Amino acid sequence: MNRIAFVNGQYTAQTMAAVHVEDRGYQFSDGVYEVIPVMGGKQIDGIGHLERLDRSLRELKIARPMSDRAMSMIIDEVVRRNRVRDGWVYIQVTRGVSPRDHAFPKDVEPALVIYARPKPATARRQNAENGVAIITAPDQRWARRDIKTVSLLANCIAKQAAKEAGAYEAFMVDGDGMITEGSSTNAWIVDQEGRLITRPAGNEILNGITRLALIALNQELGLEIVERPFSVEELRDAREVFLTSASGLALPVVKVDDKVIGNGRPGSISTRIVETFERYVSGADTNIAAGKTVA
Ligand code: PMP
């Protein structure tokens, strides 16, 4: 199928789309992005993702390419033209094209790219049912992890280490031995009292839209959520471990490095969370995280 992307203000065959050699995203990773999952033909938390995109742009003083309304229309059109029912939409905004110079150029137009890819739900469902293995790896990122920049090299290195270990994800560890988050996911544990523990939003983690959705969905679950850093030891000794991300929703973790969690099968609380997400994404309102991103 001929995939269509929105590049430089136009819908273009993806194979023909080109980015300028002096795009600041390409040269300086001076850009931000979002990935909106599409499940059963619906965008999940599209509003929350666009709100976080706005926040990332503001934090880096990158101009907003257009209104959220206009961008939503293009996103819908890219999903439609590529006939994506299950998959994701990728949105990237870079500061724009300008003669190479580290300092921000004046009066530059931001460069917007939107494309979509299908991805069957089978792998996610299988991971949700069986659980996944993770490893721990040092967090080698910069100090503004709350901004969703395209500067992902440290995340890629951590994910590659996971892959080489036959694991799904790497939970990253800060200088104090505390978990920050996964290379592309937020990290959660369930303690012996059944409380959910996750790192608070701040400069140290990306405030996941799925993380925010779970906090909102907890109205229904009624669990106690404690937002505080937790250590590698607490992770290994946890009753249950799970991770959240837009593409995986919630996935139980059954192994941390060489340590089996519980009996090696998804625990009861993680399973309830997985089921709650399944109900949520098949329901009418799929924007529960709207209005929840931190200013
Ligand atoms: N942390 C990082 C570093 C990520 O890249 C992602 C994926 N965007 C997440 C957490 C999860 O965020 P979300 O739930 O918005 O996908």
Summary of the model, kept short:
The protein has 295 residues and is of the alpha+beta class. It has helices at 24-28, 46-59, 68-81, 122-130, 153-164, 209-221, 232-236, 268-282, and strands at 4-7, 10-13, 31-39, 42-43, 87-94, 111-118, 132-138, 169-173, 179-182, 186-190, 196-198, 225-227, 240-245, 249-256, 259-260.
In terms of topology, how is this protein built?
Elements: E1 4-7, E2 10-13, H1 24-28, E3 31-39, E4 42-43, H2 46-59, H3 68-81, E5 87-94, E6 111-118, H4 122-130, E7 132-138, H5 153-164, E8 169-173, E9 179-182, E10 186-190, E11 196-198, H6 209-221, E12 225-227, H7 232-236, E13 240-245, E14 249-256, E15 259-260, H8 268-282
Parallel strand pairs: 7-8, 7-14, 11-12
Antiparallel strand pairs: 1-2, 1-6, 3-4, 3-5, 5-6, 8-9, 10-11, 10-13, 13-14, 14-15
Bound molecules: 4'-deoxy-4'-aminopyridoxal-5'-phosphate (PMP).
4'-deoxy-4'-aminopyridoxal-5'-phosphate (PMP) binds at residues 35, 155, 181, 184-186, 206, 208-211, 244-246.
Task: Describe the model.
This protein is an alpha+beta fold. It folds into 2 domains: 4-119, Aminotransferase class 4, branched-chain amino acid transferase, N-terminal domain (D-amino Acid Aminotransferase, Chain A, domain 1), CATH 3.30.470; 124-281, Alpha-Beta Barrel (D-amino Acid Aminotransferase, Chain A, domain 2), CATH 3.20.10. It has 8 helices and 15 strands. It starts with a strand and ends in a 13-residue tail after the last helix. The model has no long low-confidence stretch (mean pLDDT 97). 4'-deoxy-4'-aminopyridoxal-5'-phosphate (PMP) binds at residues 35, 155, 181, 184-186, 206, 208-211, 244-246.
